[in-house]
Write a structure and sequence with these properties.
heterodimer, A: 818 residues, alpha/beta, N-terminal domain of TfIIb, 7-stranded mixed beta sheet, 6-stranded mixed beta barrel, 30 strands, 15% strand, globular, B: 386 residues
């Protein structure tokens, strides 16, 4: 069933509140079980508030749920939770729509027809688990546990550990995560020796220059950033946003600098040129904590050109301007501002890394942080310690598991297409189809909707059809779970135990604890518990790896470490960071709880724990490269390329090196390969316009499309509702005689979509942008049949270094619909 | 009536015991800190440089006496404080009894928590005190003791003293063997050394304690047999070194260094008397010192008769007349004078109304010394209460 906007507005108009709605003909909006309605009608009206953590996006906001007689009716931000401090985004505020969504999968189901036929039959949990366990046990008996894969999404912390433990005990090295931020951190790995996303100190920086990082809308935790951003006036912080299309962050910045897609790295290097040439960089930091800045001589006596020589030789402002489209005067001015304003901070994300040259672009951007000496410095960037969770003893693998875990990981491309990542959806799909290095027999899918989100939709669909048994834990049937053979629905987050810890780039260690604020409405089960159950069905070493009876116990067990460490504090009203700093300066911990039970109760009461005090860090832990320094000359990239060259016959022939570098889309040669530099994007020159997808806050990963209010809000900034649009600069539009709101075809070499034009000065000429999130062919009554999915007309092209989809590497034509 | 001395002592002790039972000691400064932030004290008062500047930084003022001494300071500057509230358009916070107790506990704790150390001083001290004779640090030093440089963990000041204390006898033996002098420490020395080691060691994990719990410290005082030689809170012992008489209202590491300095004498005496050297683990030393530190938190009993005359001379009686004949309530009907905190809380919460009456009536704000407060409390508790 599909619902149109008009139907929804007619249903929804003027009424609010889940319980009022039911019985008013609004079952399409709120599917509230009869038992809850009964409570609501005849209960004593007792109000209660519970704190938990929202997990509709990875941001990890603390929320307060108001319940009447145990029935959740309202949600607001938890003001004592340090990540969002009471703030909320529209999606979180609408979590009740997700709880009472009429399209939730209410019990385990088995597909009884073809993919997409919509034919499903109910199955009991016992039968479903028996099916899965027998299949898994059979594979172990055959010595093929490695043929089981687990495709997660954005889970972190304890759930990721839990799944890893399951897979390791079972005997498969094939646990992967597909997410929109997939493989974003390879550049960090190359420069700083680890992939941890740095936490920027927005509060204390005086100048913030963002290369494509739309942190207010599409960052890891937009509400956290919004809170920090809200201080910009009192702190007189200047924000500069560099991106092709002005995002929400750009609209709120002091200056928006439009840049041609795929040229962020060149622009960053142009800025580096001025900073270096005018000696505006932090000489002490560069001298003591970086490698490869100056020219150098290796142990064999060979001379190497350093980053400084490369930049000064190649990226003078006029050249950077020619590549990026940013005037050289702007480059000069921005570079001088950066060099003369301390602390000034550089961010890189979004468009900067969404291209075939994304890794090198982010390396160039991040190098500016090194030039400015921003590491572990107020107003700069920090690396946050993991919460001190208690650890389980190591998994005791039996012989079958050991053999399975030693198999080549499935998604690792055999042809070394993406040498610096252990997972790419592209390699995954290709390998499944080709059955290499072995067939994939079982795939668990947990979270996300890769088939909708990916750019290799057709390849992935073909791959999924090849798998014997796909088990999805989704709580709704979406494009991906249409391919599942079994759906074992998870609880909605308000019904379950969970934990959200250390959201990347948030500036302090933290753990938010989710606990059920309402009993599960349907016959769903926690995936963590399901894994424990499956492990126990199999028994032996697999079952023994899970001594605890439930995922709730798991969280409690792990949190004991946090309690025992004495670090940080339960998020509590009234105690801010200042007191923790005061104590830390004097060698104290906050210590208040007489027992773990007391700590645990307070934790649930207040929503979580945080530690704003950063531990002492030595430089060896900041830079975990082989030199122990920030490597302008990436030795690990050099080692990877050397390995690839050796695999293709060695350096005896220059041809081998050329082959490898060409395959990696690297046109540079010699030392230039290993320092941040600009690589040209292989655009199709016969098409005139750059096509870029963009994300909007209410539905940034496309999974909120079945929440009608999020559909309503999706196009609020463009005044377009329940449909997609294409943004186009008026100058460009006039070239094609396109008026505002005109229907147009946007056509790429992959396909075309029909959308309405939105003329806007907030996009640079010759670039067009379509929002991502709509265009579902499944996913529920409110999602299906509205708008278009721009990812499905993007070229299937990747950053060859990181394996990240190159979302901004497609060109398009545009024409009026006649 | 003049009581015999022995009876007077007994009454006095009984009074102390009574007070000790009535005034619950804080277990941790956190509760009070929460009040301090929630009630917006922090908007005007900084602590350790963190907070507002309209009022003084409370960790620097150091007016920490007993509960009623602190109450006296706060009471006497009420008009100034109220003027500030009005200037800043803030309302005067209303406090419950438990909030008041927590807040007073927090303010009392501040000095106990100590001050941050100086890295430069710590570096010099390590050499001056001969520590590097046995311990390796920054590439030089002896190898008898643990190598500070390689240590994966480093200790907070109080933890360091606890570790030193525990291996005191062994250390003394080494010192004597090597003909070195026993290193005595003063003031901030331990905090300084700890600050330096924090920087100099390779480790990144600091071993820290929680601020001590006086109640736990009291139990430890008996358990570790400190009470064999020292008076804690009243019971007479063989050696009359009452801790109350020594000024121990110092930072915890300062008290700890006094204990350390005292160690040699103590070791010898204990050896003679075949008493085992007391060792501390976990948070014990912090707890023990908290107990000692909080000995003065509770007030000595006041004089009810003097209290009555203060009640009259300070003009309280002008408003608080019997049978509700005055503007204020008859205090005899208020059954909330069991502890000094109850009295302080009532005074704090009605200070706004009282100031209006005083200003309107062309009177001066009644200044009350700590002794006045004690006497007034004794009067209200014993004589006014029905």
């Amino acid at each position: 069933m599909e619902i149109k906007r008009r139907d929804f507005l007619r249903l929804f108009g003027g009424i609010s509140g889940a319980l009022v709605l039911h019985g008013c003909g609004l079952d399409d909006v709120f599917d509230v079980p009869a038992s809850l309605l009964e409570k609501a009608k005849n209960g004593s009206g007792l109000e209660s508030w519970s704190n938990t953590i929202c997990s509709l996006c990875p941001g990890g906001c603390g929320i307060q749920v108001r319940s009447i007689d145990g029935v959740p009716v309202y949600i607001r931000g938890n003001r004592v939770y340090p990540v969002n401090q009471g703030g909320m985004c529209p999606l979180g505020l609408n979590a009740l729509h997700a709880l009472y969504n009429p399209d939730r999968v209410k019990a385990p189901m088995r597909r009884s027809g073809d993919v997409g036929s919509g034919k499903w039959e109910s199955v009991s949990w016992d039968d479903a688990l028996r099916t899965v366990s027998e299949k898994l046990s059979g594979l172990r008996k055959e010595g093929k546990p490695h043929q089981v894969g687990f495709l997660g999404y954005e889970e972190r912390g304890l759930m990721r550990d839990h799944i890893s433990r399951f897979m390791r005990a079972y005997g498969s090295p094939n646990y992967y995560q597909f997410s929109l931020t997939q493989n974003d951190t390879v550049a960090y790995q190359l420069l700083q020796g680890h992939a941890q996303v740095p936490a920027p100190d927005l509060l204390n920086a005086r100048l913030i220059v963002s290369f494509g990082a739309n942190f207010l809308e599409a960052g890891y935790s937009p509400v956290y950033y919004t809170k920090l951003y809200s201080h910009h006036q009192e702190r007189q912080t200047k924000y500069v946003q560099i991106e092709s299309r002005m995002s929400l962050t750009g609209a709120n910045a002091d200056q928006w600098i439009p840049v041609r897609p795929g040229t962020y790295g060149a622009l960053a290097l142009g800025i580096a040129y001025v900073v270096i040439r005018e000696e505006l960089y932090d000489k002490e930091f560069v001298r003591d904590h970086t490698k490869g800045f100056e020219d150098w001589i290796d142990r064999g006596g060979k001379k190497h050109a350093g980053f400084k020589s490369f930049v000064l030789g190649n990226y003078y402002p006029e050249r950077a301007s020619e590549i990026s489209g940013v005037p050289s005067a702007t480059i000069l001015e921005l570079a001088r501002q950066l060099g003369n304003t301390r602390p000034s901070l550089i961010l890189g994300d979004g468009g900067a890394i969404a291209n075939t040259n994304g890794t090198f672009a982010l390396m160039a951007v991040h190098s500016l942080n090194a030039l400015l000496g921003n590491f572990e410095r107020e107003g700069g960037i920090y690396f946050i310690n993991e919460p001190p969770f208690q650890k389980h003893p190591d998994v005791l693998e039996d012989a079958i598991a050991k053999a399975g875990n030693h198999q080549t990981p499935f998604a690792q491309s055999e042809d070394d297409s993406f040498p610096l990542t252990n997972f790419s959806i592209e390699s995954f799909a290709k390998n499944v189809v080709a059955g290499r290095p072995y067939p994939l027999s079982v795939l668990f899918i947990y979270g996300g909707n890769p088939l909708f989100q990916t750019i290799n939709h057709n390849d992935l669909a073909n791959a999924l059809e090849k798998i014997d048994l796909i088990v999805s834990f989704d709580s709704a049937i979406n494009e991906t779970s249409e391919y599942a053979h079994l759906i074992l629905p998870d609880h909605m987050f308000l019904e379950k135990w969970g934990e959200v810890s250390n959201v990347p780039s948030v500036g302090f260690a933290h753990v938010g604890v989710q606990h059920p604020v309402v009993q599960p409405l349907h016959q769903t089960r926690h995936t963590g518990d399901v894994l424990i159950e499956i492990a126990r069905h199999m028994g032996g070493a697999v079952g023994a790896a899970f001594p605890l009876n439930s995922y709730e116990e798991e969280i409690k067990f792990r949190m004991k470490g946090v309690y025992l460490s004495g670090e940080g504090a339960v998020a509590s009203q009234g105690v801010r960071q200042l007191w923790l700093e005061y104590l830390q300066q004097r060698g104290w911990q906050i210590g208040r709880y007489a027992s773990f039970e007391e700590f645990w109760d307070r934790l649930l009461e207040n929503g979580g724990w945080w530690n704003p005090i950063r531990k002492k860090r030595n430089w060896a832990s900041v830079f975990r490269t082989s030199s122990g320094k920030f490597e302008f000359y990436s030795q690990s990239l050099k080692a990877s390329v050397d390995r690839l060259v050796d695999n293709s016959g060695g350096r005896q022939s220059l041809h081998n090196e050329d082959l490898v570098l060409n395959k990696l889309n690297i046109s540079a040669r010699g030392d230039g390969v290993f320092v941040p530099h600009h690589e040209r994007v292989p655009y199709e020159d016969d098409l005139p316009l750059y096509l870029i997808p963009f994300h909007v806050l209410p539905n940034r990963d496309g999974q909120a499309s079945n929440l009608p209010l999020m559909q309503e809000m999706f196009g609020y900034s463009a005044n377009r509702y329940w449909s997609s649009w294409v943004e186009i600069h008026p100058e460009t539009a006039s070239e094609y005689d396109i008026a505002d709101q005109a229907w147009v075809w946007v056509e790429t070499s992959v396909g075309r979509v029909k959308v309405q034009a939105k003329l806007s000065h907030a996009i640079m000429p010759n670039v067009i942008a379509i929002p991502f999130g709509l265009g579902h062919t499944s996913s529920g009554r409110y999602a299906k049949g509205h708008g278009v999915n721009p990812h499905w007309i993007l070229r299937n092209i990747y950053d060859p270094i990181s394996g990240k989809p190159a979302l901004e590497a497609t060109k398009a034509g545009i024409s009026l619909v006649i | 009536m003049i009581l015999p001395r022995s009876v007077a002592v007994a009454v006095c002790l009984a009074g102390e015991i009574l007070l000790a039972q009535e005034l619950q000691l804080p277990q941790n400064p956190l509760g009070g800190r929460i009040v301090f932030e929630e009630k917006k004290c922090i908007e005007c008062h900084a602590v350790g440089g963190f907070g507002g500047t309209a009022g003084p930084d409370l960790s620097k003022v150091r007016f920490f006496g007993s509960t009623l001494e602190l109450a006296s300071v706060i009471w006497n500057h009420t008009p100034q404080m109220n003027r500030k509230f009005r200037q800043l358009r803030m309302s005067r916070p209303v406090l419950t009894e438990s909030e008041m107790l927590d807040l007073f506990g927090f303010l009392y704790y501040l000095r106990y928590l100590g001050e941050p150390g100086s890295v430069a001083r710590g570096r010099n001290l390590l050499e001056a005190k001969g520590c590097v004779g046995c311990h390796m640090v920054a590439g030089k030093g002896g190898t008898v003791g643990p190598d500070f440089e390689k240590s994966q963990r480093y200790a907070s000041p109080i933890y360091m003293v606890q570790a030193m204390w525990n291996h005191g006898p062994a250390m003394l033996e080494q010192i004597r063997k090597n003909k070195l002098s026993y290193p005595t420490l003063t003031g901030q020395d331990v905090a300084d050394i700890s600050a330096y080691l924090r920087q100099a060691t390779a480790g990144t994990t600091e071993i820290r304690m929680s601020p001590g719990n006086p109640a736990k410290g009291k139990a430890l005082f008996a358990e570790k047999r400190c009470s064999k030689c020292h008076i804690g809170d009243g019971a007479a012992k063989r050696i009359q070194t009452g801790l109350v008489r020594i000024d121990l209202k110092k930072g915890v590491s300062e008290v700890a260094t006094l204990m350390w300095n005292h160690g040699v004498v103590m070791m010898e005496r204990m050896k003679r008397e075949s008493v085992e050297w007391p060792k501390f683990e976990g948070n014990e030393m912090a707890d023990l010192i908290a107990y000692i530190y909080f000995l003065d938190f509770e007030d000595k009993p006041g004089d009810g008769q003097k209290g009555e005359s203060i009640f009259k001379s300070k003009g309280c009686v002008d408003c608080h007349k019997p049978a509700g004949a005055g503007r204020g309530p008859d205090l005899a009907t208020i059954k909330k004078f069991d502890t000094p905190i109850q009295m302080i809380q009532l005074m704090w919460n009605h200070a706004d109304d009282m100031e209006d009456l005083i200003v309107s009536g062309n009177k001066d704000w009644p200044q009350l010394s700590a002794k006045d407060m004690r006497d007034l409390f004794a009067y209200l508790r014993k004589n006014v209460r029905k």
